Amino acid sequence: MSQATTHFAAASPRLLRYLAELGLARPEVSRQHFTQRLGALFDLQDSIAIAAVHGGLGKPGPAALPATDVTSLFLAGRGAILRSAARAFDPDGGARIRFPGLDPADPAARATSMEVEPYLGFYRAQQSDAEHRVRRLQLQVREASAGRSAQLDQLCALDAVLARSMSARTRGFFSAIPRLLQTHFETLRASYRPQGTDEAEAAALWQQTLQRYRLDMRGMLLAEIETRLLPVTGLVEAVEAHQMKETHD
Fold this sequence. Notes:
Number of helices: 10
Helix content: 55-70%
Oligomer: single chain
Distance between the termini: 50 Å
C-alpha cells in the first residue's frame, strides 16, 4: 500500500484516511458551516418529519433490553457484518460471492483478469449486502434502545427519520467508491511491467499485483462498513451515556 503523501487528523473517519493512504482523495475534513451544509441535504418533506419528532413524544414505555445488552447486540451484529465482508475476499472463506481470482496455473487467464469490471461488480455486490445488514442492525438497536427516557425515545425517532431521509443520498455518496477503485486498479495495471516474455513469470507478477488490489479493496470495504455503522454507534453510545447518568444520579 502506498504511503499517504499528506498529513491528516487522527480524528478523521477511517474511510477518508484509507482513501488518502491510497492516494485517491484528500484527507482534510472541513468543519466550516457544518450546519448549513447538513441542512442542504434535507428537503421540505424531510424538514417537516424532523420537526414533528422535535414536537415531542408521549411517555416512554418499558425498555426492551438493559443497556449492556444493547451494546452486546451492536457488537455482535457489527462483528458478523465485518466477518462476512472479510470472508468474501478469502478464496477458502465459503462466501457465496467471492473476489474474482486468477488461476496461477493458467497464464492465459491473465488477460481476462486485467479487466476491471468484474472486480467493481463484486465490490458493488458487497456494498449492497453491507447496506442491507447495517440497516437491519440499526433497526434492531433502535428498537432495543427505546423506552428508557423521553430524550432517548426522541433520539430513536429522529434516527428513524434521518435513516429514511438520508438513505438515497448515502447510497449516492458510497457509489463514488467503485469509481475510485477503478482509478486505483488502472494505476496498478499501468505499473505492471513483466520482464521478458515468459508467460508463467508474467502471470505470477500479475498475480502479485492482483493480490495487492484484493487487499486494498478489502481494506476499503471494511472502512466503508465502519462509516456506515457510525449512526448505530452513536445511538449505542447515547444509551450507554444515559445508563451511566442514571447510575450516578
